[in-house]
Amino acid sequence: xxxxxxxxxxxxxxxxxxxxxxxxxxxxxxxxxxxxxxxxxxxxxxxxxxxxxxxxxxxxxxxxxxxxxxxxxxxxxxxxxxxxxxxxxxxxxxxxxxxxxxxxxxxxxxxxxxxxxxxxxxxxxxxxxxxxxxxxxxxxxxxxxxxxxxxxxxxxxxxxxxxxxxxxxxxxxxxxxxxxxxxxxxxxxxxxxxxxxxxxxxxxxxxxxxxxxxxxxxxxxxxxxxxxxxxxxxxxxxxxxxxxxxxxxxxxxxx
Length: 255
What we know:
With 255 residues, the chain is an alpha+beta fold. It has helices spanning 3-20, 41-57, 87-91, 157-160, 167-174, 183-191, 205-208, 211-217, 241-254, and strands spanning 30-32, 38-40, 62-65, 77-85, 98-105, 108-116, 121-126, 131-133, 136-138, 150-153, 177-179, 197-200, 221-223, 236-239. The chain contains 9 helices and 14 strands.
């Protein structure tokens, strides 16, 4: 385990502990950002905590986070953080929110950590080293038929946009089970073999960065609605290898 991953795990653990102090608190302060999405005092304090760790340990590294302005890098290394992924769930007392931390080096994501404080689950992966949950190796499922697949999604638009004929959206009609276990939790269900596909139609870089290495190191595939593996794409799809390959072929044929 590299020193960077050790730091990421420590940051996720401490930020998660901080969020627990606000979880289910009736007096939780909720604000509205310019994009109309909610943010809480817990989001901001958790990101400040993580940024403080990075500034102390790796002062030349850049930081891209959801809640504050980007700090430029002077060494082609950048930490990408989402202090609370699933803020709406957090506000409503749902325990499926996560703390997400990734490290990008020369434009490539090298590690990802996703911590679920309430569930006491810590997912992490380094490039080329496999994916783990609380220290045990995890892998995607081997299910290969769409009709046997469990598909999870975040936003209701995945079900409501009935006019879309994109292969990923058509899964809602073909899958054996479709459930709204969304945000980072859904993608980690794929990485750990408990679901076959997770779908987010709208994503920002901090929403994607930690997820991609975890799913890939677990043997799966991550791509956007254009079939590209990127943190800057149109949405994000996580899939086990078998169904992911089918989707990528269908996407390529549709273009």
